[in-house]
Amino acid sequence: MEIALSPFLPEALLVGFPEIDAQHEEVFTRIESLKAGCFGNTYVDIAEFQALLDSFTLHFATEERIAEDAGIDFAAHAKIHRDTLDLLRKALGDVIKGERDAHAFLRYAEYWFERHIREDDKRFVATLQESRHFRLPRSRRPVSNRLFSARA
Ligand SMILES: [Fe+2]
């Protein structure tokens, strides 16, 4: 029996859509890696922070594509994505200028993302499940979770 264990995407945050769950885990993994990398360190790897924003951007575009394919009105959710990206880009600019602490940026990004999954993405996937124009892919743990799997 395979037991999926992931330190970065707890069961409570799974939405049941493999592509979305895998992207959620990637974002959390990047945040954790950045937190570990800049703990007790004044050096900020700007390229890695930019890669985190790229992961957010890709993830938001994925959800928007899935919604469009399913014919679901996604305007309000997409606005949340745009507003958040604007805010994160501005906050990262502040980090680069030394006006904002990198850890504070990461804590905010992590808190925001967890709340967004619980409140917005779960509702989105529930709407997908109710849509007669869309068939939800078979649910399974994200591919990256194999790194954390154990056999019992
Ligand atoms: Fe979303």
Automatic annotation (TrEMBL):
User: What does the record give under GO molecular function?
Assistant: metal ion binding
Keywords of the record, alphabetical order, are: Iron, Metal-binding
Pfam families membership: Hemerythrin
Q: Which family is this sequence assigned to?
A: Belongs to the hemerythrin family.
Q: What is this protein called?
A: Hemerythrin-like metal-binding domain protein
Q: Does the keyword Metal-binding apply?
A: yes
* Hemerythrin-like domain ranges (all copies): 18-126
Q: InterPro entries annotated for this entry?
A: Hemerythrin, Hemerythrin-like, Hemerythrin-like_sf, Hemerythrin_metal-bd
Alphabetical list of NCBIfam families matching this protein? hemeryth_dom
